[in-house]
Fold this protein.
Amino acid sequence: MALSKIFTGRFYAANAAIFFLVFYFFFGIVPGNMLLSYHLTLIRGFTGNTDFLCLVLLGWTVYNAKCALFVLKTLSARESLYLYATLGVLDGQQKWLTWFRIHFSLYMPALVYSSAAVWIALRDKHIGAAVTIVLFQALMSVIPLFVYDRKIKNPGTTSLFIRWQQKLNRLFTKPLWAYYLYELLNNGSRSLFITKGVTGLVIIATYSLMEQPYELRFMLVGLLLVLLAHTVLVFNHRQFDDLKVSIAIQLPLPLWKRYVHTTFGYFVLLLPEFIFLAVRTYQVAGPLDQLLFICLSVSMLVMWRMLLYFPRLDQDKYFRWVLISIVISLFMILGYLYWYVVIGWQVLAFTIFATRYYKYEPPLAEVQ
């Protein structure tokens, strides 16, 4: 009972907002009489599609990592030192059962939903998907137990991720374009993984719903939705620059090189989507189409970032201009003016950057 309050109660309390959003997405937006069919369609969607299943497994992996990191963080807290005296004396079967109960109580939502998925997959004769889910969840339930046990036995050791991060920092000097990506991986991983999960679903849905033959305009419309999912990450980029790398303006770099750094940073940010798109469309989309996907995506994200050099552009106005640019791009795409969109947004982005970069002053609210 005491351990459940320390780990389970605190975990669900700390992540109540996230669980509310997930619950609303899975149950709140669906009418009661359609709830069962909605979940049956969703489960049959990922048990019958390998790409969709991989995306779901990735989501479960992220959630499992979140559970494990919470336990490790709790064990590392100064006020939790007494847990080493309590859990450290356990041995044998009792020790592993205790760790399993703790981890199961945190990871239980994923296990319950995956159990339903296995049952439906077996009924639909998707044996491969059912076996994959069972083996995957077995690993997700067992591997963290050894991590917890190692932490109890070695309370003063630094985690493998932290050691790898420190070693990487010693070996490599981060270029300017990588600063914000590094920040997202360390302090914005939640929003980053949610964004990538949403964009993966959009790409799968776009390609799956597209009627044959292959239609470039249909794929580009889906790509606009992928880019729209990144707007929050782009908006937060300004705050990161204002608070943590404001000294970058004093670096002896020409303006064009600064622009190239920003462009390359967004290319790397979108690299998972580019790879996924290439895997999904390589049989029907030629190299020129793949290049168009990359150029359009990077151009729009860079243009949205440059809009934020107008300091009075708050979040509401920013999203308003984002939607306007989406609509303009949509009409130009429907008019087959693909490369005009790319050139237009690049010209606008560089013009704003060249005229506003050295004049920009961070809003007082962000500086404070």
About this structure: Residues 2-158 form one domain. The CA atoms of residues 64 and 107 lie 6 Å apart. The two ends are 43 Å apart (CA to CA). The longest helix spans residues 92-123.
